[in-house]
Amino acid sequence: MQQGYSNKEACRIVGIDVRTGKKWRNGNRPGKGRRPLPPASREPAVRGPSRYLREDERIHIADRLREKATIRQIASELGRSPSTISREIRRNRTMLHDYGSWYYRPHAAQTRADARRPRPKVSKIAQNPQLRNFIQRRLGSRWSPEQICHALRTEFPDRPEMHVVHETIYQALYVQGRGELRREVAQALRSGRVRRKPRRQAQQRQPRFSTPMVMISERPAEAEHRAVPGHWEGDLIIGRDGKSAIGTLVERSTRYVMLLHLPNGRTAEHVKDALVTTVKTLPAHLKRSLTWDQGSEMGRHHQFTLATSIPVYFCDPASPWQRGSNENTNGLLRQYFPKSTDLAVHDREDLAAVAAELNGRPRKTLGWETPAERLHKLLTT
Question: Are both 260 and 334 inside the same structural domain?
Answer without folding.
Answer: yes
